[in-house]
Amino acid sequence: MSASAALSTDAQGSAARTSRLRKPRVQKVRVAHKGAILAFVLPFGVLFGLFYLVPIGYAIYESLLVIKREGTFGAATEVFGGFTQYVLVFQNGPFWQSIGRVLMFGVVQVPIMLGLALLFALLLDSPLLRGKRFFRLAFFVPYAVPGVIAAIMWGYLYSPNLSPFSAVTENINFLSADLVLWAIANVVTWVYVGYNMLIIYSALLAIPTELYEAARLDGAGQLRIAWSVKIPLIMPAIVLTAIFSIIGTLQLLAEPQVFRSFSSAVTSTFTPNLTVYTTSSIPNVNLAAAFSVVLAVATFILSFTFLKFTQRKEAK
Amino acid sequence: MSTMKTDSARPGRGIRPAQSKTPKAPLAQRESPLARGGALIVMGVFTLYFLVPIWWLLVAASKNRSQFNSTNPLWFADFSLFENIGNLVAYRDGVYLKWMLNSALYAGGGALIGTIIAGMCGYALAKYNFPGRELIFNVVLGGVLVPATALALPLFLIFSQISLTNTFWSVFLPSLVSPFGVYLARIYASASVPDELIEAARLDGAGEVRTFFTVSVRMMVPALVTVFLFQFVAIWNNFFLPLIMLRDETLFPVTLGLYAWNSQVNQIPVLRDYVLIGALLSIIPLIIIFLLLQRFWRNGLSAGSVK
Question: What is the structure's pLDDT at A315?
Fold first, then answer.
């Protein structure tokens, strides 16, 4: 985002400069259709401010407070506590374990999911396959299943006695402490492969066919074309899906929350968001707010780093 | 952020549909049967992976309780699906229908209004020059990267300050905001709404706002349908915000309601039947919407992803 960030500071700077140099009236003449612009931008701007910016600010504010009590029975009051809550966050073992757990989840699940999505998209785009319409729809259907519902369904499919595949589930306990994380990974993969496949497939459709024709005439096979022509061209789409997947992984909540009623191995601090939820219902909102802030910052840094990393690789 | 940048250096790219691919057809004969067979097997196996769970859900929802455990789980016994649906709808004065209605209101209303305001904002960012435009766009882009779940808790704290938790609005209002929608609308508007057209409307004496709603919106339809759909899905699937905001069962969306039932299955065994039937019914509206609007969203999706 460095380019656009630079742009933004530029725009900001020049805006500040113009307002300093010119009288407002002159500016009014220069910006045409001011009323219309306001009418277009304000509705979204106000809601974005109220339900995005204010909550972020409020979370930061709450995370800087601590609860003080006057004696044992005194009223609790919130007072400024500096980074007290953040010290607690960094000392909180279960929280960091939950971060480690979703990172492990992401390192395994995201490449598998996107690898499958890429494979299916390339097959859909290749002349090898017939019945593309059917496959495209069939693979996309699970995306219409909400995460909660998908988790409930798979919870039954995994269960040792209710599963239609009880021959398997009687012998392998997918809901055990060792496997339940990967059982959840399967649910997430099942829901999102088709969605990511479609995004990548749309990018493939946008490549001009002449590019393949040239490669074909040079004697390149389908595999070669996919590897040397298609994949480099659709890299931006793959990066986009990867970033959304990384964000999604760190935010895991619905699936593990549902699995708590199928498996005792899913604790109340299984994922970072579960930790936030559990902490806020204690209630310890200040600590929960600090968890939220740390999680959001971690998410931002991770997706941002990933972006920079892939951009540098592309530039080489 | 190369993937999300708005440069209109390649206008129209990605909006081009698949027609350009037709010359490929004669090449198909040149592929080896082995490669074609392999491709078909891979896709066939994964079709089973994606569809068998849904098939199982349909079969399970069509059985009465005694047959659920005793008959082939992947094939129908006595077909009592409609009887089961009747029981589900009658249970506790039709609370399930209430949940479906709530979900339709949260997702349908939220996505509709959300799409209109995101479309207007994206359009203004694409078609007008004004100071702070890039700043606004970059802040909104940052919003795309902010996970919605990180906002749920502070939203709850703010709403409880003004005693609005556990109300329809506490879930509805935050759902209206779609930064991704603004991003997509801007990209699409700058590529597909010609400046000449806006100028022509201006010469005809139409106001800016009226031009948008009568002329420009028509060219942005694929993008707007895409924004609507994905916001609809996002709200329909949203779990954390209602979980944290709502206590009153009659305000629940269907996901939260089924979750609540599913966690009580051990105490109230009859709920297991209702959870499965309810799960089946709850995915049907989304599938129908996706099928109906397919033509639109596939074009809109490609516009957003290639940039």
Answer: 61
